[in-house]
């Protein structure tokens, strides 16, 4: 029901409905469309658009299909954040997402050099990604300094894999733009394919969990989906290089 393509098609308001539904499955089963809209902080029109993007004619059909979906999957865990993580893995456990990973690996293989880019937590994951890829036989570097100079020499025949939760960080967008100007391909890994970074990139892999910040500043959004994507790419790459 919650396929990768369906979730990727949701806009920001529809994602608010999705996040509420995933976190509160037992409540949603007995809610009217107005009650769900109020709890999610959106309009009933947004809820209807959300239902239609999940291939449901209306809210009634959504509730029926959602009930069947819950019955066919494991019960939601009570642990913090587990429902979002479980939902992510269900959304990518299909041939469609596997094909996207294969397409990304093809781009990686065509590039002589791989440069992972990120800032903050994404910078730490850029370092991890570079080491993981190097371990499987594709030597890679990482940049976690948003003011590191991008030159035509470093960008030649290279692929920049740019990591960003929001895909809207000004410094990261500047980085990606500079790589593009030097004719370096950009592969982005973001939380939503409608972000500015995803649109700027040559290829995007998106993951979908609710962003979380402390005091509206410090980002504590889970990075488990990013690690999964990087390791999946690395393992596929290892098989192709063997």
From TrEMBL:
Residues 1-73 form the HTH rpiR-type domain. Signal peptide: none annotated. The keyword Oxidoreductase does not apply. It holds the Pfam family HTH_6. Residues 104-242 form the SIS domain. Keywords: DNA-binding, Transcription, Transcription regulation. PROSITE patterns: HTH_LACI_1, HTH_RPIR, SIS. The keyword Transcription regulation applies. This is MurR/RpiR family transcriptional regulator. It comes from Siccibacter colletis.
